[in-house]
Task: structure prediction
Amino acid sequence: MLKPLPLLALAALAFATAMPADAGVLVTPGYAVVVAEQCAEGDVACADVVYTGVSRRTGASITLHGAAFSTTCADGTTPCRHLGWRFPHGTLVYTVTDDGALLVTRDGKLVLSQQGKWVR
Result:
């Protein structure tokens, strides 16, 4: 069983990524992930989002750039309800959802799925 991620480690992760007010930290059994939108508040379709993930087992980290994704309104084009963020990395796509899921797919096939809790 993994030990809880120390609060100090979360603070260090937040500081190291210059976490803005509209960022959050998702803690899963295996990872701590900071998601930081670099867009104006309320931009449901933010295309400038930074993912910084740290393995709770090894301490290895990765920083990725991606975009928010959402449902579309009745007109079929306007973004409506925010669902999460996607971060492409070669053949992998890291997805973080509003409900706290961390998903990693390779060529469309799921290779990692962990449920976590938002701590900020």
About this structure: Helices lie at 7-16.
